[in-house]
Amino acid sequence: MTSNSQSRNHPTETILLVSLFLMNAAGFLVMFADKQKARRGHWRIPERTLLLIAALGGSLGSLLGMYLFHHKTRHPKFT
Predict the structure, then answer these.
(1) Are 29 and 66 spatial neighbours (Cβ–Cβ below 8 Å)?
(2) Distances (CA, A) of 69 to 18, 30, 39, 52
């Protein structure tokens, strides 16, 4: 029998999970935005920013965005 306290997430775990979700969502959305800017010939998001978001926990979202939008997949720095 498990107690109620064992089935709930610790506040630190919740904060970590929400942070990871938000960073991955940011990575995904930034890849989408940069791809749109590239298509339109607009000023682009710096590669440094894209890599920083991935390094700070958004790597899965960034990778998903890269391959879903076919963006930055030929650049050695990103593969």
Answers:
(1) no
(2) 24, 11, 11, 19
- In 3-state terms, what secondary structure has residue 39? helix
For residues 23 and 65, what is the distance between their CA atoms, to the nearest angstrom? 13
What's the pTM? 0.77
Task: State the Cα–Cα distance between residues 10 and 4, nearest whole angstrom.
Answer: 12
**In angstroms, rounded to a whole number, what is the distance separating the alpha carbons of residues 11 and 77?**
36
Write the single-letter amino acid at 68: L
pLDDT tens figures, 43-77: 999 999 999 999 999 999 999 998 898 776 666 66
Q: In Å, how far are 2, 3, 5, 21, 53 from 66, measured between CA atoms? A: 42, 43, 40, 17, 13
Q: How far apart are CA 1 and CA 17, in angstroms?
A: 26
